[in-house]
Amino acid sequence: MRIAVALETRTGETRVALVPELVGKLTGLGYVVVVEPGAGAGALHDDEEYVAAGAEVLEEPWLDADVVVSVNPLDASVVRRLRAGTATVSFLPVNQSLDLVADLRDCDVTSFAMELVPRISRAQSMDALSSQALVSGYRCAIVAAGLLRRFFPLNMTAAGTVPPAQVVVLGAGVAGLQAIATSKRLGAVVKAYDVRAAAAEEIRSMGAIAIELELETLEGTGGYAREMTEDRAARQRDLLAPYIADADALITTAAVPGRSAPLLVTAEMVEQMKPGSVVVDLAAESGGNVEGAQPGKVVRVGHAQVWGGANVPGQMPGPASRLYAQNVVNLVTLMTRSGGEGDGEALFAPDFDDEIVAGSCVTHGGAIRHEPTRAALE
Ligand code: NAD
Q1: Where in the sequence numbering do the catalytic residues fall?
Q2: Residue 224 Cα, ligand 1 centroid: separation in angstroms?
Q3: What is the pLDDT of residues 319-344, one digit of tens each?
């Protein structure tokens, strides 16, 4: 069976769904791997590397593929040219892709969404949300350190002592914890806040100070946060304002699944920050945690430079692609049965009774399997 690696067409995308280093994992299972020319260029992998690793390089490789892997969803024009029964594995933000999901259903494509892989222990190696959030969190801390015109660490020198930078991180999920860890490694004093009760212990385990506010915690389902009421959001902003005014660098990573990012910091709060301070908003693309942050831009608000994230994992395309590709290979491996008869050929045969397969499947057999999306389209 054939697995195609698609060239990403989304503007600014640098990642690729399979890196040459991992081609052997799929050919070893018995797949033929076919890569679209230039697919790895943004992540600095040329076509020759894929060929050397055992793949073929072909125009429009998805035309006779059994499985097509990509980072972003395929274009509708490509979906309409797939053979019935082809499977796709990619990020597929269903809420924002209803027309595409309808196309996938109508073209009898079996589609799997990486962000729907259940976050259970057995699926950790397939968890692309976590792998990409790890890259984003690291990148946010490095951007903050780069924009700040002063040291992160304490420096004791013959010429005197330079105090460490004060970093505040809001949202301590996978990205936030990585931003904390990276800022700590660079020597900053880090304080962090998250609405989930469990986060305080995780913040402390990274060597940071957990900001504790006199507010109820907001646990939702599946270990995620719940949305705030406007009243609680206003009280949270009031209580956080002094911490933000004290910070040299503020990094925000807060998100609530299926919702716009919560507004945690108003422009007025940023205006209270010191001259030279920096704000890094990872959530700028999904609504923004910080008022005024613009994706892909650095804007000035008061004395602060405010950096808005845009495809932040794509700013480190090598490691982001490597980790994403490993997630994809692990998911494809779960859905592969030996060809039998000792012929060494792989059989892509998802077991829909498996919780990971069922949970990540969006369309199959001409129907929408993901209930909330089916309801939204009916
Ligand atoms: P996420 O990207 O949805 O959110 C990022 C963080 O923002 C979360 O920690 C959330 O609590 C926080 N947040 C939301 N609203 C906020 C607000 N108003 N103020 C401050 N912070 C706010 O979450 P994520 O990083 O994908 O993961 C969240 C949780 O899931 C974590 O507990 C993580 O450890 C857990 N997780 C479990 C697994 C697994 O078991 N396999 C895998 C990944 C993550």
Answers
A1: 119, 124, 127, 130, 224
A2: 5
A3: 999 999 999 999 999 999 976 555 67
Tokens of 25: 């994992």
Contacts of 221 (CB under 8 A, 6+ apart): none
As for ligand 1, residues whose beta carbon falls within 6 Å of it are 119, 124, 127, 129-130, 133, 170-176, 193-196, 199, 223-225, 228, 253-257, 262, 264
Q: How far apart are CA 325 and CA 330, in angstroms?
A: 8
DSSP H stretches of helix in the chain:
20-29, 47-52, 76-79, 98-106, 128-147, 174-185, 197-205, 230-246, 267-271, 317-334, 355-360, 371-377
User: At residue 206, what are phi and psi to the nearest 5 degrees?
Assistant: -90, 0
The DSSP code for 342 is T
Residue type (1 letter), 240: L
110: CA distance to ligand 1 center in Å? Answer: 29
pLDDT at residue number 342 = 53
3-class DSSP state of 290? strand
Residues 159-205: pLDDT tens digits?
999 999 999 999 999 999 999 999 999 999 999 999 999 999 999 99
Distance 174 CA to ligand 1 centre (A): 6
Interface ipTM: 0.95
Which of 91, 116, 117, 119 should be mutated for ligand 1, with most atoms under 8 A from CB? 119
Cα 177 to ligand 1 centre (Å): 10
pLDDT at 223: 82
pLDDT tens digits along 278-317 = 999 999 999 999 999 999 999 999 999 999 999 999 999 9
